[in-house]
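note to self — DONT lose this again. spent like an hour looking for the file last time. sequence + predicted structure for the chain T wanted, 256 res
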Amino acid sequence: MPTAEMPTAELELPRLAAVAGPDHAALSGADDPGEAPPAEARPAEALPDSSVRALVIDSHVPSRIGLAALLEEQAWIERCLLAAGSEESVALTRRHRPDVAILDISQTGPFAGSITAAIRDAHPGVQILLTSRCRTSPGASPASLGAVGFLPAGVSSEDVIDGVRTAVIGGEPLDFAEEATPVGGPELTEREREILLLIGTGKTNREIAERLHLGPDSIKKSATVLYRKLGVRNRTEAARRAELILGREFDREAAA
């Protein structure tokens, strides 16, 4: 168990195979405890033993340690590093150059893109997989947030392992975003969503007024209220939020 003197990020959990003893090897079907299973018995997507460094990023201690324990049970995991936040994760990425980072977005939601960008700056080769402890989605496609996939709360342990493995080998990870409830920010009225959508696609107040058959002053007042709800300072910041909050609705308008 970690103590106060042990940095969480440097904690490495013991492998079950390392303490299982000879009987564990016998159950695997190998004649010799040190003998690897025949190549034909390994699945096509299998990774070499001890070939993958993983980084788990989650502010919730039990979830962070639980996921690390699950990963450490996999023979292909060499080391599993733990980080509680963005700064710690960037430092560990720069120092250890993990192959895959699993980032919990329960608290960051649609703002996860800034964290993934910082992690990729530290190590461009890392694959990033998003997860959530809550039944919520990132509010945008994983790719737009700098990740290769998203695994929400409620998926099985097998799906988590498959998602991490597939991210490492460069395939298409499991993505259940459509089944989750989007996290788009504050509750907006239908009119506010319309205005945000048009702000996001570069329309001026006058153009929005013409589109919605309203006066420019009315649009200006509505936009001010909208900025306050979104917690943004200006039109540029609101436009950035539009894509994250509105998702496919924004994509359709932008493509029109």
